[in-house]
Amino acid sequence: MKASWVTGASLQAIWSQFPAEEPFESWAWWQAMQRPFGAVVVENKGEPVALWPLAFRRIGPVRAYRQPLGVPWSPLLWRGACREEVPPLEKQAPILRALAAWIRAQIAWVEGGLPPEWQYVPALRQGGVWPRVVGSFVLRPGTFAPSADLRRKLRQVAEVPLQSVLVGEAWRVWAAHRPVGVPAQFATLIKLWVEGPFPWRAWVVGQPPEGVGLFLWGRSRVWYVAGAHWQPGQAFTRLMAHALETASQEGKLFDFMGSYLPGIERFFRQFGGTWENRLWLRRRWGLEGG
Asked: C-alpha dihedral over 158, 161, 165, 171, to 10 degrees?
């Protein structure tokens, strides 16, 4: 198998051959980003068998390829994918080797994550790339079991108003209270995505509002994309618990898009989530892991 970089109409034609089951796997999602993008396309005897999209930009005479903000990983779409099962290793291995060989051959910056089901490190090493490990807290359907301390917190705010709102309205509230450290570029990207034809749900808690949460409601997962709270207390905990329970009732895994910051980690961990490892591929200016 061999891999090459493809953009534009040629990529769109190839992309249409692959199933896109989650919102950010679709061509429309990447177009809504309004940033240049392409994909590493893996071929077997001239037939596309997988693609891995990345955003890119030029830095002087070279390109920098990177997973964009706002997605948990760069989707790796492949022929014959069955999303209910982990891709068999005999299918993963040649695709990942070809992907790694393409990354290894680049002089520019290449950086992006792989979906959680693509975790076959030997194939990447055989292709010349040593991946880092990243990940997120996730809560699987039916496993939300609040601790006694969390139940106490939720009782304290049981009467606080909680309402579903249109995602555009939720974005405006969130943007007005954007947490410190969240880059303006991320806020702009979220605005583009909430204006697109994608499955969002959003809630505001408190009257007047004390917190807001925006969730991408996918086929098998729910992603906590953005949230903010600006009043002390447990009102935002109530919002998160409601989103978790709703996702669980619909049989969806909840992805906290987790952080390594201690305070945020403690907040997520109280809901009973487990840590999901994912692989991050990085090559900067021809230096592996640089």
From this structure: -90
Q: Which of 211, 287, 213 is nearest to 247 (CA)?
A: 213
Partnered with residue 50 across adjacent β-strands are 42, 78
β-bridge partners, 3: 42
**Rounded to an integer, what distance in angstroms lies between the CA atom of residue 152 and that of residue 175?**
30
Strand partners, 137: 275
Residue 209 makes CB contacts below 8 A (sequence gap 6+) with 173
Q: Domains in the chain and their CATH numbers? A: 2-133+279-288 (3.40.630), 144-272 (3.40.630.30)
Task: Return all residues near 105 (Cβ < 8 A) that are at least 6 apart.
Answer: none
pLDDT tens, position by position, 111-141: 999 999 999 999 999 988 999 999 999 999 9
- In percent, the amount of the chain with pLDDT more than 70 equals 95
